[in-house]
Amino acid sequence: MSYDKYSKIKHETPYFYVYKSKNQLLYYFGSNHSHDPNHPQFNLLKEKWSEFISNTKKTKRAVIVEACEMSNKELTLETSIIKRGEVGAGAYLSNKSESLLAFGEPKENEIINYLLKNFSKEEILLFFESIAIEFWHNSKTNKSIEEFLSNHTNKYRTLLGWPDLVISVDLINKIYKKIFGQELNIGDKKIFSQMTTPATIKSRINKLSRSQSRYRNEYILDQIEKYWNDRYNIFIVYGAGHAVMQEQAIKSLVNSE
User: Fold this and answer.
1) Could you give the C-alpha distances from 170 to 17, 52, 161, 167, in angstroms and in order?
2) CATH number, domain 3-106+213-255
């Protein structure tokens, strides 16, 4: 589905569907991004997971999560959700059922190398740090925004090939003002969600977001197709937007059997 079409529709979150072929099942749990184990979506996730397990006994099972790598050693579903949100939930359920844990995301360096073909290092840094700042606003961390941002410096020095980079509130303000021609109110978290959404195009950062999201969606679908063709029953835990946008392609994959 194109983003222009996606921006015109409304869908439930979580967004869930099941597709069946003669011998395989694919469950897609499109979630709200949440680290709150009391969020009602996790009751629905457990319900659908129990159904999936019941319907796939003595078969190969794969759980695909919105990550490029991770290990899950948490003792409870609750702690998994607190630490990694719905990704942690998927990893925990996979581990407890001895299902294959698979990763739907390309590595960060692959995404950034792709983006560098059309966007500047400053634009890319603003995009990813805007996502991080919105997370900081929503989290219960005791870290100051300066400490939170500075901890990303070494990571983006390497990923962006920017050896003298020092990430700070001042730097993010300067980049924002250069691109948008106005001061950034870093305390207004709505700015960051609006700036990074791929659904509407109001700036270069929205265009960047759409480009990286399209790249990721294509990669995710390749992973789903790989495990489907390897005869796994698949349970996917991903953001609801991805679930909606990928549904037609997944339906075509299952119906091609």
Assistant:
1) 44, 49, 20, 8
2) 3.90.190
Angstrom CA distances, 63 to 21, 52, 83, 248, stand at: 18, 11, 18, 20
> Where do the structural domains in the chain lie, given as residue ranges?
3-106+213-255, 108-212
What one-character-per-residue DSSP string does 104-118 give? -SPPHHHHHHHHTTT
Pull the structure tokens for residue 19: 């597709």
Residues 103, 246: Cα–Cα separation, whole Å? 16
pTM, to two decimals? 0.82
Using an 8 Å Cβ cutoff, are 100 and 94 in contact? Answer: yes
- HEC string of 158-207 equals HHHCCCCCCCCHHHHHHHHHHHHCCCCCCCCHHHHHHHHCCCCCCCHHHH
Q: Which amino acid is at 250?
A: I
Residue-wise pLDDT for 6-54, tens only, equals 767 788 889 999 999 989 999 999 998 888 999 999 999 999 999 999 9
pLDDT of 55-102, one tens digit each? 999 999 999 999 888 876 778 999 999 988 899 999 999 988 989 999
Q: What is the pLDDT at residue 78? A: 93
Spatial CA neighbour of 172 closest among 223, 133, 139, 218: 133
